[in-house]
Amino acid sequence: MKEQYGNYTISYIDAVTYYNYLGSKAICLKNNKRLNQNSNKRADFIFSQPFKNQKSIAYQDLIFQIRNNTYYMVKAYIDDVEENTKTSSSRLQYLKNIKNEKHYDVKIKLISEITEWQNKLITLFGLLLALYFIVTFKKHNKIVLVFALYFSYVFFISGISSTQGDRFHIVFYPIVLLLLFIFLKNIKNITNKYMK
Predict the structure, then answer these.
(1) What are phi and psi of 194, to 5 degrees?
(2) How is the chain split into domains, by residue range?
(3) Contacting residues for 3 by C-beta, under 8 A, at least 6 apart
């Protein structure tokens, strides 16, 4: 790692992701422009820098934006979380109809609608369940709290990037299902207790 990148670090993409997405979007919002990753000059700039400098550049930009562009940073973050929560899979746009199948566009549209609603519903259930298990953590096994905190972490960290569709949220779908099963089991136990 030191030979290729110049130093040791856990991740090189965290700072670059902030810089390219959240930082760029905050500047675009301030200038009343729409972020287009295909023509993002900030991305071109940071990728032209050595790996060991990218993190420093992004960190300095973050401090500058917090001090001088706070409103648009918060607005960009909220917009990113909202967009990543309510949109379909962004990867569908890269599919091609190489076999010239009939009704291909209809199939892609249907899959897009399914992934959009899947993302919305599972994220909503996840938020409600995580909130429930965090607030009532003393009543549950500690691993349930870890699941709820994991969901919350992934959900809130998704705001660092935009135009990802369900790409960030899909990683917590299994956790949401576990939380749902635990919640339903608790409801069943409560119902059985009072029905006797």
Answers:
(1) -90, -15
(2) 2-68, 95-195
(3) none
What distances in angstroms separate CA 97 from CA 2, 94, 116, one per listed residue?
43, 10, 21
**How far is Cα 187 from Cα 181, in angstroms, rounded to an integer?**
10
Amino acid at 168: F
pLDDT in tens, 67-106: 999 999 999 999 999 888 888 776 776 777 778 888 888 8
- Cα-Cα-Cα-Cα dihedral sign, residues 156, 157, 163, 165: negative
Q: What are the tens digits of pLDDT across the range 113-144?
A: 888 898 889 999 999 999 999 998 888 889 99
**CA pair distance 110, 93, nearest whole angstrom:** 13
**DSSP of the chain:** -HHHHSS--S-SHHHHHIIIIIIHHHHHHHTT----GGG-HHHHHHHTS-HHHHHHHHHHHHHHHHHH-HHHHHHHHHHHHHHHHHS--GGGGG---TT--TTHHHHHHHHHHHHHHHHHHHHHHHHHHHHHHHHTGGGS-HHHHHHHHHHHHHHHHGGGS-S-GGGTGGGGHHHHHHHHHHHHHHHHHHHHHHH-
Residue 13 has pLDDT above 60, yes or no: yes
